[in-house]
Amino acid sequence: MIKKSYDRILEISDDHKQITLPDSRYYRRNGEYYPSVTYVLNSYPKGKHFQDWLKKVGYSADWIVKKASEEGTAVHELIEEYFEGKEMNFLNEYGNPKMNPEIWKMFLRFVDFWETYKPTLVETETHLFSDELKVAGTVDCICEIDGELWVIDFKTSNHLQTTYDLQGAVYGKCYEECFGKKVDRIGVLWLKSKSRGVDKSGARLKGKNWEIYESPRTQEENLEIFGSVKKLFDLENPKHKPATTSFQTTVKRTV
To answer: What is the CATH number of the domain that holds 172?
Structure first.
């Protein structure tokens, strides 16, 4: 059984002696390679706050980004197992924590959202594409809440970013192209929100330290902005072709 952290295997040779790994920045579609939505969004301007942060943390930046990415991956994997109906435990059989408590707390915020609003799960971790935009990606969750079809991405970052708005808008368009259904609402389930609890007016979906964030712009406006970013991306990356790596699976010292 392949662990989730290694499930990007693209091809295993017939004799099981060679494994080829894909470039996660690209998806293959009808003989073409479509860049991932997140890869394209790397071309979006980082802004002054990012530059100030970079100056502040200096050489620690790479480590901080890597740690945040690992935390996000861990939370996503817990959510996947929750969707599969597995019993989730913070402690192992010896009574010791199995993970960083912060990861578990973010997962519990997701559980609070799910059990409070009781969405109907439609799709999870689904590969999507747009032949019009020439991009692809993997959406965290498609669900129905009170009769409305939602695209929801799970985020564990300290701050919300404009790219989340663009990413969600593109996923909404991709879903419409792939499934022939237009989504009603697009949101980010932010698991590090400063929210103090439920919105008593009922206007927003939120709880203790989590909230569903929706872009202040329309999907059409966000798609227009994404189109500009894609032009910059294509200018700097004129040849869309992934780089693959291969390695052998068996080694024996020769005498």
So the answer is: 3.90.320
